[in-house]
Amino acid sequence: LTPYGRSTAVSGADLAAAAIGPIAADSGSYINGRNAEPSSLESYDAHRENALWDELARLSSAPHASKRFRR
Fold first, then answer.
1. 6-32, pLDDT tens digit by residue?
2. b/e for 33-58, b at 16 or more Cβ within 10 A?
3. How far apart are the C-alpha atoms of 41 and 36, rounded to whole Å?
């Protein structure tokens, strides 16, 4: 494993703790190991989100797919 890697046993235990165990976090929270953390600032960037949906629509040939997700 790399310094950032984790074993399947540790990851599985953390997943179980997040699902049914002692990790206290709101629904939709970002869980890193056994800690609830805020997601990155980039995840709140509406322009970046719309650019992603536009690119996905272009790649999938689905016209106007991003319009329904715009805020």
1. 899 999 999 898 888 888 788 778 888
2. eeeeeeeeeeeeeeeebeeebeeebe
3. 15
d(CA 15, CA 12): 5
The beta strand positions in 1-71, using DSSP E, are: 30-32, 35-37
Q: How far apart are CA 49 and CA 70, in angstroms?
A: 9
Q: What are the tens digits of pLDDT across the range 40-68? A: 888 889 999 999 988 988 898 766 555 55
11-16's contacts with Cβ under 8 Å and 24+ in sequence apart are: none
Query: What are 69's two structure tokens?
Result: 């997700």
